[in-house]
């Protein structure tokens, strides 16, 4: 099919079509005219990095990101060493897949701990160990601030400003940030922080914020247009900051996952053009 | 009973004992040695402001706050006029109850709207109309930033910093802010903002942040000790900023509401002493 120029920077994050394998997601992107894909480590591991890299390359796609490393808040030495080792493996996998963007979800409070400052300090420490390793392999650690409702159990990194405070201690090619509309749309400081981020922006992810939130709040990510987010101002701010990379659609949503993936992709393309690219 | 000096600044927000009427909550405070109560407009309306004021005064209690005014984001003129009128009534009720603190929950996005900046601007406009009215009656509008997970549907005011940006346009005796541990504990900027708040702090509310959040995320407020918040640093920061008022315990939680209110109050007193007053 002839490439639709409006889709030139669109990427399917494969969790949006959760039931698809890497091969199926790659094929789905090709059918829909989507030129890029965000991969997850678990489905990649089912076939191995070389096979996944070949599938993507043979289809003429690019890998916009690998999800994900992180979970760097453990206090005990053994768990911490294992987390660092796992993140090095994730860097290697990103390099093997030909993407320079490894998304990091930094982890929540360790079980039973109320030491938020300590958990945040351990993330900073871990980056000191991981950033050079990533940089040497041409991979950038993309710190993803998560919505504050996940602060306790998933990511003690809660705002873009906080992510930039961490990232700026490292070279720009070693540590960047993710701007995900779901996580940042509410932040009154987001415009200033996106401008500040500039070349630190390693990934731009979109999905909508739904209310009421579902019983599992991790699944409150909706198709664009189904929630409360006004996308074009965020898209324009990220572009004005100098970001020229892909826009990845990443949706965790039980209803979306229960829908035929080709239909999900078709809706995603339609909503992307209508609601994200809108002036 | 002899007053316990450790409870000298403790207040029961009456929603914590949701099934109690004003009279029952006042009696419960007296039985537990709690010297202050945070009232809600709906139960007060059941007996009228003068009767509620008499009950509280006759029991020797003080009213630490009245909840709540706000909901100031409507775009259409009629809804907006009604909201302003309702807030003036709330100010009058606060004055009649002898409290200088009227808590405002500012409201979410109007149905179908994605104009977050517009909603926020309308809150600022409404304050311009309401603040002098409140000040003339000895009442301070206490802006409550709500956790960002409520941005869409309950309060477009999401951080203490944003609340202070709004409040500082007005005299300190007209507009203050609420520091509620549930809403602010995750904020990496909270320490700087509490210090900045200083005499703007009109209310300090405590409860814990639970995970997993319940299906109705409004009810994720837990008894202190049941969640993830480390209270003493926040208590000390608020005190260091100059706040000398009450600490109100405000818990919305189905399990707490299903428990015998006297037992809830007993647990609350115990946890307050153990976990909030701890060094």
Task: Give me some keywords for this one.
TIM Barrel, alpha/beta, 279 residues, 10 strands, 8-stranded parallel beta barrel, 43% helix, 11 helices, two-stranded antiparallel ribbon, homodimer
Secondary structure topology:
The structure is a homodimer of 279-residue chains.
Chain A: E1 10-13, H1 22-32, E2 36-40, H2 41-47, H3 49-58, E3 62-70, H4 77-97, E4 101-105, H5 116-136, E5 140-143, H6 160-167, E6 175-180, H7 181-184, H8 190-197, E7 201-206, E8 208-209, E9 221-222, H9 231-240, E10 247-249, H10 254-257, H11 261-276
Helix pairs in contact in A: 4-5
Summary, kept brief:
2 copies of one chain form a homodimer. The first copy, chain A, has 11 helices and 10 strands.
Helix-strand pattern of chain A: EHEHHEHEHEHEHHEEEHEHH
Q: Which term fits the overall shape of chain A?
A: globular
Instruction: Pick out the low-confidence regions of chain A.
Output: none
* Overall CATH class of chain A: Alpha Beta
For the biggest sheet of chain A, the summary is:
8 strands, parallel, barrel
Largest interface, and how many residues on either side?
A-B, 32 and 32 residues
What's the structural domain tally of chain A?
A: 1
Can you give the mean pLDDT of chain A?
97
CATH topology of chain A: TIM Barrel
The number of helices of chain A is 11
* Strand order in the largest sheet of chain A: 1-2-3-4-5-6-7-10
Work out the radius of gyration of chain A. Answer: 18 Å
Corresponding CATH superfamily of chain A: Divalent-metal-dependent TIM barrel enzymes
**What class, by secondary structure content of chain A?**
alpha/beta
Number of strands of chain A: 10
Residue share in helices of chain A? 40-55%
Beta content of chain A: 15-25%
Oligomer: homodimer
For the termini of chain A, the CA-CA separation is 27 Å
Under the CATH scheme, the architecture of chain A is Alpha-Beta Barrel
């Amino acid at each position: 099919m002839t490439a639709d120029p409006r889709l030139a920077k669109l990427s399917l994050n494969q969790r949006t079509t959760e039931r698809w394998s890497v091969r199926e997601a790659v094929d789905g992107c090709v059918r829909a005219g989507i030129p890029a894909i965000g991969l997850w480590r678990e489905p990649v591991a089912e076939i191995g990095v070389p096979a996944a890299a070949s599938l993507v390359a043979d289809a003429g796609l690019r890998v916009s990101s690998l999800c994900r490393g992180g979970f760097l808040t453990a206090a005990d030495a053994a768990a911490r060493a294992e987390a660092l080792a796992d993140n090095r493996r994730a860097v290697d996998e990103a390099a093997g897949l030909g993407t320079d963007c490894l998304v990091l979800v930094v982890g929540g409070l360790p079980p039973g701990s109320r030491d938020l400052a300590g958990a945040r300090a351990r993330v900073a420490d871990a980056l000191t160990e991981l950033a050079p390793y990533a940089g040497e392999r041409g991979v950038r650690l993309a710190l993803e601030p998560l919505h504050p409702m996940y602060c306790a159990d998933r990511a003690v990194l809660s705002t873009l400003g906080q992510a930039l405070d961490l990232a700026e201690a490292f070279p720009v090619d070693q540590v960047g940030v993710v701007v995900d509309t779901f996580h940042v749309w509410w932040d009154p400081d987001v415009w200033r922080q996106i401008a500040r981020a500039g070349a630190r922006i390693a990934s731009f992810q979109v999905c909508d914020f739904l209310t009421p939130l579902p019983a599992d709040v991790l699944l409150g990510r909706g198709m664009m247009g189904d929630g409360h987010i006004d996308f074009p101002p965020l898209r324009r701010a990220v572009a004005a900051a100098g970001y020229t990379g892909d826009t990845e659609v990443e949706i965790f949503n039980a209803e979306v996952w229960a829908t035929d993936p080709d239909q999900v992709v078709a809706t995603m393309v339609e909503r992307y053009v209508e609601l994200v690219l809108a002036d």
